[in-house]
Structure formats: C-alpha cells, structure tokens
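User: tokens in, sequence out, please.
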C-alpha cells in the first residue's frame, strides 16, 4: 500500500461515494489506509488510526443506507453437485486436488432441488442458486440443470446458477428454461490469482462474467478474502468488478479447511473483514454486497454481537441457511436480528449465491 492518505482525503472519498462518483487515487489510498488501520494494535505509535477506521465504517454505513435504505437482501443455495472438481483453487474443499471431508456427490435429482427451493422461499429467500462444482458441466449434468431451473421457477423463486463456465449457447438454453441470473466469482485480484488457481486463467472467469452480462442476465460476481492477498489487491478486485459493471457482489471470507492448500491460514479478524466491506462499499456504492461464506467464522453465531456489527456495516445482503460445504446459522436467527435492527429482509431483487466453497 502506498501511503495512508489524510483524514481530509478520507472524508472526500466518502463524499465521492455518496455522490456516486468513483474514487480517485488519493481517495482510494486514504480508504485503504483507514481500512488497514483497523487491524493495527492500539497504542502510542498508532494514535488516530482508530478514529480513521471508525470514520471509514461510518462512511460505508452512510453509503449503504443511502443506496439500500433498510433493505436486506437474502438468498439461499443448494449444493447440486459437490466435490471432485478438476480445478485446484487453493481454498476450496471441493477441488479434486485436495483431500477433504467435504461431501462428494453427483448432480442431485432435480426434484430434490425444487423441494429445497420451496423450503428457502418459506424462510424468506427470493432467489435460489443452484451451485455445481466443476469448471464446466458434462452433457447429462447440464440436462439435469435445465430441469432444476424449471422446478425452481415453478416453486416461485428466481433461479440462478453457479456452474462454472457457460458459453452463449448454454446461456440461451438456460434462459429458455427460466434462468434469471448467473453467478461466477472472480475469487481474487488478477495479480494474485496465479497463487490461488493454476488450472484455468483469470481471463476465463472474466469472460464468463462478460458473457452473462451481455446476455442480459442478472450477474453476481465477487470473491473470497483472507487468502493472503494484499489490501491493494483487494482494491484491484474491486476495480475489476466496477469496470465489468457487476451489480451484485458476494463477499466470502476464508474458512481454512483441513486438506486444502490454505488449511493453515487464519480466519480474518472482524475489523479486517469490516474494513474490506467498507472498501468495497465505497468503491462500489451501488453494488449489492452480500456476505456469504465465512460469515459465521468471522462474525460469530446468528443473532450475536458480531452479526450486529455486520448488519451495521457496508453490507447489504446475506446468504441464509447453509453454505456449500459449511453449515450456516439458523436462518431464523438472522431474520430475527435483522428485524430487531429495523431491516426489511428479503425485499426487492437479491443477488445470487457464491460458488465453490
Ligand atoms: S472454487 Fe469452483 S472451480 Fe475452484 S476448485 Fe472449487 S468448485 Fe472447482
């Protein structure tokens, strides 16, 4: 990170975000400095950093309120196909390159997926993501996917898929079946990606996002944080998402899973995670930032103090229920806390889910 910036620059960054204007270099540096300061120990050598951090969080909260009011966007997923993925993403329990205890199964019966969608609707979700491991889906699995999309629509939810790379023809067939959105995470910054995945190119993921946007679909694309990326690389990912015009950004935090390449990493601290959300909120003032994987690991049990802090951050949505390979907290706890804090859960279009964890 190159310089921390001044408090005047931080204030200017917040004003820029409130005015829907992109951060310039000085403003971004000030935001990065304030975000990183939240992870520094308090003490004489760090006088004032707490103040900058708190001002950043307050600014992110103000931008979130301005653009999302009291809405809290909820969504849910089903892990339609799990494990044995050809890719070697360093964090992922589903990679066939890792030996993990996470479930491995072929494509679920589409009727099961339809039932899971109906249950998610009853819990307050408005979209439902069908997630399948793998860079692409083989022909038989793709036919199952088409049927699952139809059944999710029949259950009364918008259907999204997170199924790896999709070309124009497959996108068209899924849209004919009733598809609403595509999720495809970029995972991390372009400059850090080679340290995380070596089996496909970053540009493949960017192209998948571009094709879905060009098809007119709702597109959800974000990343996972705490992989060892720098603050500058977090901003780099934010800029790539801004340049692509992605409106929905899932934010995942690493949960180090035994058997993966990142099993020895630590879970991010709450201040660091809140700083990441604030950075993204100021860089992407209108993007629906939804916290997905790692929410419980970083912010604690549903209904608790950590989740209160999260709902007071720049985030504007949550994934409820279980994640792909990690159990979530009961959706009822999330809903009860959201209502207690004055949020209006599950109104309006919400983003689609994350993939690959
Ligand atoms: S993140 Fe997705 S592509 Fe990467 S290993 Fe996991 S399932 Fe495969």
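Assistant: Sequence out:
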């Amino acid at each position: 990170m190159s310089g921390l910036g001044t408090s005047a620059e931080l204030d200017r960054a917040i004003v820029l975000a409130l005015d829907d204007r992109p951060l310039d270099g000085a403003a971004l540096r000030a935001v990065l400095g304030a975000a990183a300061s939240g992870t520094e120990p308090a003490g004489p050598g760090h006088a004032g950093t707490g103040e900058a951090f708190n001002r950043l969080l307050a600014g992110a909260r103000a931008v979130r309120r301005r653009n999302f009011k009291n809405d809290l966007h909820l969504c849910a997923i089903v892990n339609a196909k799990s494990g044995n993925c050809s890719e070697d993403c360093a964090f992922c329990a589903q990679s066939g390159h890792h030996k993990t205890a996470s479930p491995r199964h072929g494509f679920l019966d589409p009727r099961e997926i339809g039932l899971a969608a109906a249950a998610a609707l009853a819990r307050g979700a408005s979209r439902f993501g069908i997630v399948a491991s793998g860079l692409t889906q083989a022909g038989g699995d793709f036919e199952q996917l088409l049927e699952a999309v139809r059944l999710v629509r029949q259950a009364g939810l918008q259907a999204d898929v997170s199924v790896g790379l999709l070309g124009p023809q497959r996108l068209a067939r899924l849209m004919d079946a009733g598809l609403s959105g595509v999720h495809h995470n970029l995972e991390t910054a372009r400059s850090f990606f080679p340290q995380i995945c070596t089996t496909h190119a970053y540009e493949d993921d960017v192209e998948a996002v571009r094709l879905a946007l060009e098809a007119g679909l709702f597109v959800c694309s974000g990343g996972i944080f705490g992989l060892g990326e720098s603050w500058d690389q977090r901003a780099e990912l934010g800029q790539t998402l801004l340049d692509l015009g992605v409106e929905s950004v899932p934010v995942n935090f690493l949960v180090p899973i035994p058997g993966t390449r990142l099993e020895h990493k630590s879970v991010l601290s709450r201040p660091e995670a809140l700083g990441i959300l604030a950075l993204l909120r100021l860089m992407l003032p209108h993007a629906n930032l939804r916290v997905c994987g790692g929410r419980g690991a970083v912010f604690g049990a549903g209904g608790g103090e950590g989740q209160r802090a999260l709902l007071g951050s720049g985030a504007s949505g949550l994934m409820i229920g279980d994640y792909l390979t990690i159990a979530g907290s009961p959706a009822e706890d999330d809903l009860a806390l959201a209502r207690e804090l004055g949020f209006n859960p599950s109104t309006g279009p919400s983003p689609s889910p994350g993939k690959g964890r």
